[in-house]
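Usage

Read records sequentially. Each one opens with the input sequence:
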Amino acid sequence: MFYTTDTNQHGLPHDPFKAIVAPRPIGWIGSKGRDGSLNLSPYSFFNAISDRPKLVMFSSSGRKDSLRNVEETGVFTANLVSRHLVDRMNASSAPVAYDVDEFALAGLTAVDGRVVDAPFVGEALAVLECRVTQIQQLMDIDGNPADSWMVIGQVMAIHIDETIIRDGRIDMGLARPVARMGYMDYCDGGSDVFQLQRPSTAPSI
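and closes with the structure output:
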């Protein structure tokens, strides 16, 4: 099949775009408002985008509470969603009022960041503490503003639970990171881990 996205006439009952760009890591974003209220929300438009400096981004479709908080405070945390936390991650995605604490709603421990003034998930096996470097409203090819905002943060500190470290590396079979697929589908990134070495010369296939 083939279709152009200006008409989006794919003929399927659900748009396949996000199922093609998959799996996508989940940015479980912890933030605090200027009024001290706590927020925890999962974002499937999330990834690492640089190693030097260490930068991550998440994109908010619409002006959501996390975006409001990072605009006010300039900091956030990104918490690893492991398989044992997936139900609590899902609970934190409930559409609730701004003053509702999703940490409490999902039965999670909110811990104050050690470097940034933003809460992180105490039960998470890895956490990134981040300072905002850019917030940008996205636009389409014609320059029209989209109802989406990209937040880029520099990682200032990292927490890792030592139970997932084996032979000097994070063991993904133990960390079991959860990723978003298309539709309502998710996957466990630790269930089929394999290694590849990059070729040192041009491969002959």
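Summary fields computed downstream for this record:
- Residues 57 and 152 are 4 Å apart (CA to CA).
- The chain is about 15% helix and 40% strand.
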